[in-house]
Amino acid sequence: MNSLEQAEDLKAFERRLTEYIHCLQPATGRWRMLLIVVSVCTATGAWNWLIDPETQKVSFFTSLWNHPFFTISCITLIGLFFAGIHKRVVAPSIIAARCRTILAEYNMSCDDQ
């Protein structure tokens, strides 16, 4: 394989990698937005749960029953993490990092752009 063919292969690889990462960006953005919304809801519900004076007087499960917003948002957040949202949010970064590792073995590099 001569250097011209190698350069063309490298450019094709770069185009395909860029295309794939660019294709992941909209889905990643939606997952990030969902994670932010559910996290803010959970934090807001937790704050309301903690400042409620009844929380100290009743049992734990009764307290959760009295604060359904916190309970539902907390269960949703836990469910999202079990569903793998943490992997979906950082998928493009993981792919770029793995490609960077492989390319380093061949004295090549790539950036996040």
Automatic annotation (TrEMBL):
* This protein's GO CC annotations: cytoplasm; Nem1-Spo7 phosphatase complex; nuclear membrane
Q: Which residues cross the membrane?
A: 33-51, 63-85
What is the membrane topology listed in the Swiss-Prot or TrEMBL record? Multi-pass membrane protein
Q: Which Pfam families match?
A: Tmemb_18A (PF09771)
What processes in GO biological process is this protein linked to?
A: lipid metabolic process
Instruction: Report the locations given in the UniProt record.
Output: Cytoplasm; Nucleus membrane
UniProt superkingdom: Eukaryota
What are the entry keywords? Answer: Cytoplasm, Lipid metabolism, Membrane, Nucleus, Transmembrane, Transmembrane helix
Q: Which family does it belong to?
A: Belongs to the CNEP1R1 family.
Q: Which PANTHER family match?
A: NUCLEAR ENVELOPE PHOSPHATASE-REGULATORY SUBUNIT 1 (PTHR20996:SF1)
According to UniProt, the name of this protein is Nuclear envelope phosphatase-regulatory subunit 1
What is the gene called? Cnep1r1
